[in-house]
Amino acid sequence: MNRALRAAVVLGAGLLAGLLVAAILALPVPAVRLPTLVAAHLPASGVTHPVTAVLLNFRGYDTLLEVAVLALALVGLLAQSPPRELMHAPSPGEPVLPLLARVLVPFLILSAGYLLWSGAHRPGGAFQAGAVLAAAAVVLHLARLWPAWDRPGRSLRLGLVGGLLLFLAVAAALLAGGTLLRFPPQLAGTLILLIEIGLTVSLGLLLAGLFLFLAEPRSLR
Amino acid sequence: MMSLTFDLLLGVALLWSAWHTLATADLIRAVVSFIVFGLLMVLAWARLDAPDIALAEAAIGAGLTGALLLDSVGRLKARRRPGDNG
Amino acid sequence: MSSGLVYAVVGVLLFVLGAAGMLLLPHLLRKILAFNLLGSGAFLTLVGLAQRDGSVDPVPHAMVLTGIVVAVAATALALALLRRLHALSGRTQLADESADE
User: Fold this and answer.
1) Dihedral in degrees, nearest 10, Cα atoms A213, A99, A117, B57
2) What confidence tens digit (pLDDT) does each residue in A123-175 have?
3) Which residue of B has its CA nearest to A212?
4) What is d(CA C19, CA B13) in angstroms, rounded to the nearest whole number?
5) Given CB atoms, is A103 within the 8 Å cutoff of chain C?
6) Overall number of domains in chain C
7) Which residues of chain C have pLDDT under 50?
8) Are C56 and B49 in contact (CB < 8 Å)?
9) E-strand spans in chain C?
10) Do the domain assignments include residue C64?
11) Phi first, then psi: what are they for C27, rounded to 5°?
12) What is the domain count for chain B?
């Protein structure tokens, strides 16, 4: 990219920044107040935490599509790796990191369970719980207690897509009653908890898979 | 006024760490700077009363993305031909 | 100026910085870093603007949560593509970008 083009991009970026900042400083007061709408419908949503209500109930369709996008990215990632020979779990090196991992991972799994449960009435939920589970898997791998993942076996495949399939099944069942993902108020809490359990397991495996399918088995380095 | 000063300082720190991520010559420093940026973002989310986002950003944004990037930089450097510029 | 507005402005600047970085930096890993900065800037602006009068709005919180997960998915896929390119050809830059850096 030659000098003139680079200068033009930098100039254009500066101009864009200026225009955008001026635009957002001149924004009028919004006409619709979303927090009031959310608070008004919160009792019928099945949970008491507004962010979880928006994520799983009011905008549940976005969450459904997002898990599908994550699964799609993992499929794309798997398509890049050439087939590798199966490696056994390599022997651990120094003692400190595996010991730390062995102490930490049960707490991480427990925390994930708590975060999943607490999402109904305080900050938490399936995404945070799934992320903590993925962190536990990565910690185990870095401590050389768990090998990198190769081709996924049947149970791993089921775990990876199980949450998405459960969500789709609930959506299909609700679709039979009329609108897409319209939870009946008396069932909403249970359905959301069910979906969140499936999502936590799947998200944890999907996010862990993003790292562990890319990591090469240590002995090959 | 005090809290606004903190927000302004945090904003400057965010912009500085972002600039450093893109401008520094060494790739590993760039990734470390990006992780620092992620942790500063967690502070920003806390300031914006968004604990859900702060939790997710800490675990996914700074943690998982940082681990992915560090792993990739290590892989790229290990197989790099001598004389290449990272 | 409220704290929400401060973060909205910071978000806009991060967005432009990330966009310029994606266009100008030839190394593919730096493009991925710039892409993440761009995304984080967009998220900050989304929440900052909604909360510019000081209130807490749960709808952009949910949207940003979704966005963070999608961003890490895109980053992981981009890194996988980069590693494949590097494994097959040894390059970390696209062929039509001349190495003047």
Assistant:
1) -60
2) 988 999 999 999 999 988 888 888 888 778 888 888 888 889 989 888 888 88
3) B68
4) 19
5) no
6) 1
7) 99-101
8) yes
9) none
10) yes
11) -70, 130
12) 1
